[in-house]
From TrEMBL:
InterPro entries: GcvT (IPR006223), GcvT/YgfZ/DmdA (IPR028896), GcvT/YgfZ_C (IPR029043), GcvT_C (IPR013977), GCVT_N (IPR006222), TrmE/GcvT-like (IPR027266). This is aminomethyltransferase. The keyword Transmembrane does not apply. Residues 2-232 form the GCVT N-terminal domain. Belongs to the GcvT family. It comes from marine metagenome. Its EC number is 2.1.2.10. GO terms for molecular function: aminomethyltransferase activity; transaminase activity. GO terms for cellular component: cytosol; glycine cleavage complex. Keywords: Aminotransferase, Transferase. The keyword Transferase applies. GO terms for biological process: glycine catabolic process. It catalyses: N(6)-[(R)-S(8)-aminomethyldihydrolipoyl]-L-lysyl-[protein] + (6S)-5,6,7,8-tetrahydrofolate = N(6)-[(R)-dihydrolipoyl]-L-lysyl-[protein] + (6R)-5,10-methylene-5,6,7,8-tetrahydrofolate + NH4(+).
Length: 335
């Protein structure tokens, strides 16, 4: 997936926010898990509640190490004959090894990353455009999927995305998706690249593995408590996370807007009254807000929205303010 296509980052970004855009996300990893004890295995390996899933559901989740650090964040799909797990591209081998090391009897695990491709059509007009080429209605709820035909090709269409807009992710083999990609582009949908995708996800405070979450961060400080189900009997990392929950997190992932000109970048230091309180994990210029925005881990004491902070940008302390997320509130996500 290129950084951007010929139109450039801003037109690609605005296409997704205002109209429709198309991403090639085939680099993502896909594992298939099935067998009599697949549900038990995934209940133990992931932090969300797999027991609540029915066929047709998608679930955002994560895997943790025993110390509560994050192995990866992922999407799980409940298929009629098992589970499809979608993981981050950079973590395919690590995640597969982690699952393999913990595998139990009566469970089979298969890495299908080479045989799956994935494209994502995102934006307020995505349903109107895609529905011209499907043999089924696209009115499924957020975080659900349907198997069916798109322009005669057998695919899985999931109502998910990484942009904060109404959108659909289409899974299938490379040949089918190349045809569907070309059909959508020829119907006027703009292709969009990694740079636009990164701005879009940041404006929604969607975590990026390697920036905002990794093995040194836990779901509670990353704002992922909502996918951490402590009512489950046991899962990898549960004991450590319970201790963290009881003692309180020492830091928190917050979102901030720059109050003066300046673009925050990963690694920049965060200050309050000349005291260092944390580091930026993601930052960019928001085309719609016309200001710098970012995410940062800071001392828990200062995490309240409205708090005035400063970002060290090239040895200058530039004022910023902690805000409630998402940065962009009025989107087509639930239309």
């Amino acid at each position: 997936m290129p950084i951007s296509y010929s139109d450039g980052i801003q037109p690609e970004y605005f296409a997704v926010r205002n109209d429709v855009g198309l991403f090639d996300v085939s680099h993502m990893g896909e594992f298939f898990i099935n067998g009599d004890d697949a549900k038990t295995f995934l209940q133990y390996m992931t932090i969300n509640n797999v027991g609540k899933m029915k066929v047709g559901d998608a679930q955002y989740s994560a895997m943790c190490y025993p110390d509560g650090g994050i192995v990866d964040d992922l999407i799980l799909y409940r298929k009629p004959n098992g589970y499809l797990m979608v993981v981050n591209a950079a973590n395919i081998n690590k995640d597969f090894d982690w699952l393999s090391q913990n595998i139990i009897a009566n469970v089979s695990l298969e890495n299908l990353s080479e045989s799956y491709s994935l494209i994502a059509i995102q934006g307020p007009e995505s349903r109107n455009i895609l529905s011209q080429f499907t043999d089924f209605e696209l009115n499924m709820p957020f975080y659900s999927y349907q198997d069916g035909l798109v322009e005669g090709f057998s695919v899985m269409v999931s109502r998910t995305g990484y942009t904060g807009e109404l959108g659909f992710e289409i899974y299938g083999n490379a040949e089918s998706l190349l045809h569907i990609w070309n059909i959508l582009i020829n119907s006027g949908v703009k292709p969009a690249g990694l740079a636009a995708r990164d701005i879009l996800r940041m404006e929604m405070k969607y975590c990026l593995y390697g920036n905002d979450i990794d093995k040194s961060t836990n779901p509670l400080e990353a704002g992922l408590s909502w996918i951490t189900d402590f009512s489950k009997n046991s899962f990898v990392g549960k004991d450590s996370l319970l201790k963290i929950k009881e003692n309180g997190t020492k830091r928190q992932l917050i979102a901030f807007t720059m109050q003066e000109r300046g673009i925050p970048r990963q690694g920049y230091e965060v200050f309050i009254n000349s005291k260092k309180i944390g580091n930026v994990t993601s930052g960019t210029q928001s085309p719609i807000l016309k200001k710098g925005i970012g995410l940062a881990y800071i001392d828990y004491l200062y995490h309240e929205s409205g708090c005035e902070i400063a970002i060290n940008i090239r040895e200058q302390l530039v004022p910023a303010r902690i805000i409630r997320t998402p940065f962009i509130k009025d989107t087509s996500l639930h239309h």
